[in-house]
Specification:
Strands 8, 9, 10, 11, 12, 13, 14, 15, 16, 17 and 18 form an eleven-stranded mixed β-sheet that branches. This protein has a seven-stranded mixed β-sheet with strand order 3-2-5-6-7-1-4. It is built from three helices and 18 strands. The chain has about 280 residues and is α+β, with helices and mostly antiparallel strands. This is DUF306 domain-containing protein.
């Protein structure tokens, strides 16, 4: 082999070696990089007021799949508000942490000097179904508004805030626990416990009042909950009729709701609690 051909052959081998090293490095870099994606959207509120300077917006992506467990925060962002609503937000998260069989929620809060002013009250899963446009509604926290002089009168737009809700209002079996501040116990020979369910997408409420099955309609907007007149069966029971009568009256008086953990409170139009319920899950 001539000396010139020998040089060409050596050059070819060097190029092959460099290309192989480069391809290996690129694969290694790709495999170690997280699958980063962006969540972006807006937060807004309906209250006609400007927030004080220095108000902080916090938005967090949470895993809420485990019933009764502590919420797992996947990613979050914090920013100081400027201007008027809506306020845009965006932050990154590792998409490999998102699993189809799990449930997620976007939680938003407005905080001023450590005090909670507003927060989101409805569950919003950006992945199920996939949200093309993410808009998070914020509602005023009752304790924050109560410091204002005008808060002595009932404000119809003031929402009752749900905190760390681990159960959803709809499609949950809500067991009646207390009525007008008194614990509810099953009467002797009572067939089943008093409860109700709100069927999402159907606008139907159904349940058992202690003696009779009932059914009706409902509407919900933010923390406002309205239950239409209830139609019930006409069974006569020796026991349970007193609780049932009070239960039906509470449903008629309900104007708001609040969820904390797995506990639901129904409130009247003056924001006074009427009854408490606990979410039940069955295997």
């Amino acid at each position: 082999m001539s000396q010139q051909l020998h040089r060409l052959w050596l050059s070819f081998l060097v190029l092959l070696s460099l290309n192989a090293c480069q391809s290996t490095d690129e694969v290694a870099m790709t495999s170690t990089q997280p699958n980063v994606k962006i969540l972006a959207g807006n937060v807004y509120y309906h209250e006609r007021k400007l927030l004080p300077d220095g108000t902080i917006l916090q938005v967090a992506l949470e895993n809420i799949s485990e019933v009764g467990a502590v919420l797992t925060q996947i990613s979050s962002m914090t920013q100081t508000l400027e201007g008027t609503p809506p306020y845009a937000f965006n932050f990154s998260y590792d998409a490999d942490l998102i699993k189809a069989e799990r449930r997620y929620n976007l939680n938003a809060k407005l905080i001023l000097t450590g005090k909670l002013l507003m927060m989101s009250t409805e569950q919003l899963d950006p992945f199920n179904p996939i949200q093309e446009t993410i808009n998070i509604k914020l509602s005023a926290v009752a304790s924050a508004v109560s410091q204002e002089p005008s808060a002595r009168s009932v404000e119809p737009n003031l929402a009752i805030v749900s905190e760390h809700a681990l159960s959803t209002l709809t499609n949950t079996y809500w067991k009646l626990m207390t009525l007008n501040g008194e614990a509810v116990k099953m009467a002797e020979r009572q067939k089943r416990e008093a409860f109700f369910q709100l069927k999402d997408g159907q606008g139907i409420i159904k349940g058992f009042g202690s003696c009779n099955q009932f059914r009706g309609a409902f509407t919900v907007s933010g923390s406002h909950l309205s239950l239409a007149p209830i139609a019930a069966t006409s069974m006569a029971c020796v026991n349970g009729m007193t609780v049932e009568g009070q239960f039906f009256k509470v449903l008629e008086q309900t104007a708001h709701y609040s969820i904390r953990g797995h506990d639901l409170t129904l409130l009247d139009r003056t924001k006074q609690p009427l009854a408490h319920f606990h979410a039940q899950y069955f295997n």
